[in-house]
Design goal:
By secondary structure, the protein is of the alpha+beta class. The protein has a domain of about 140 residues: Bacterial muramidase (Helicase, Ruva Protein, domain 3, Orthogonal Bundle), CATH 1.10.8.350. The chain is built from 15 helices and nine strands.
């Protein structure tokens, strides 16, 4: 698995699904940390930043305890990804699904072009846009500088990753001419309408509106970026994504469910799972979403795995799929 894939799996998150502690960042002396001084030295020597600039930025960075709490200790459900009930409430609700159809209509020409250029299905681009930022409406209100400085220089389970993202933040800002203190995004430092952390924003940039600028907040550029991502990860246009399945009972525990490993279709059927629509592949991802009263089962095909390479979550992929199904 590449570094970029790990990034996509771990931190590209529809942040508005999660509870916000609302504790504002606090003043903190980052410059007093030897690790920070070493980071400044590296950025000056290797990437040719001015020391005064680096010192000034770190002097103004604040500690975001809310962000840090999400990555401290073992992973906790709901800390960095939403539950299926939250997806249903915030992404698959009637208002959001109505917005999905309006979005498709408003950007149909761009979506059609992306579909043709990258050989992907436009309805799934719509799904990505809805899940990641509700079609550009929610792109984050956390200071990217504070979030990444906090996670780069305080103990947490992904510190090494975030320290690398902090480096890419400075590189991105220099390349784009952004003011680093004004950038806003998610609690993980992800920015724009498809929530890209700095390294992803640099690598998977797109100028799909042909204005000479790659802009993570521009809707058309985001459409191009997602279409490019789908293409690079093996999306097959028009191919099967997922079908619903039935089983006896309300909770399914007979087989291990996963969007990362397939099972023979014969084995799945042998354990009482029946596809409710034709499923022609010999293997399938057996997918489960937990509701308050019961489990939903689905059989996922290769295209479904592509969806979860952007965020390592069955619920995430299924939300995109159901949005796409709704706007067909």
């Amino acid at each position: 698995m590449t570094t970029i894939q790990k990034i996509l799996l771990l931190v590209l998150i529809p942040f508005y699904l999660l509870s916000n502690d609302d504790r504002p960042p606090i003043n903190y002396d980052f410059l007093a940390k030897k690790e920070v001084q070493n980071f400044i030295d590296m950025m000056v020597k290797k990437h040719h930043f001015k020391r005064d600039y680096m010192t000034s930025v770190l002097k103004n960075a604040k500690l975001d305890k809310d962000t840090l709490a999400r990555y401290t200790g073992k992973y906790k459900i709901g800390s960095t990804n939403g539950s299926w009930e939250r997806y249903k409430a915030h992404v698959l609700d009637p208002i959001s699904l109505k917005k999905a159809k309006k979005f498709k209509k408003a950007y149909y020409t761009t979506l059609k072009r992306a579909e043709k250029v990258y050989q992907v299905d436009m309805n799934y681009i719509v799904g990505f846009m809805g899940v990641e930022s509700k079609f550009g409406e929610y792109t984050g209100d956390y200071s990217v500088l504070d979030a990444l400085a906090t996670l780069a220089f305080h103990p947490n389970r992904m510190k090494k990753f975030f320290k690398n993202e902090f480096k890419h933040l400075f590189l991105l800002v220099r390349e784009k001419g952004y003011t680093i203190t004004k950038l806003q995004g998610s609690f993980a430092g992800a920015m724009g309408c498809v929530q890209q952390v700095p390294s992803v924003a640099r690598k998977h940039k797109s100028d799909f509106n042909n204005d000479g600028i790659t802009d993570p907040w521009d809707i058309e550029d985001c459409i191009g970026s997602i279409a490019k991502f789908m293409h690079k990860n093996g999306w097959r246009k028009g191919a099967l994504v997922a079908v619903p399945a039935s089983y006896k009972g309300k909770r399914f525990k007979k087989l291990k469910t996963s969007h990362r490993k397939t099972l023979p279709l014969k084995t799945i059927k042998k354990h009482g799972v029946t596809p409710l629509k034709p499923f022609t592949q010999s293997k399938a991802y057996l997918l489960k979403n937990r509701n308050l009263t019961h489990d939903d089962l689905w059989l996922g095909a290769k295209n479904f795995r592509v969806l979860t390479r952007y965020n390592n979550s069955t619920s995430y992929g299924m939300a995109i799929h159901l949005v796409a199904e709704h706007v067909k």
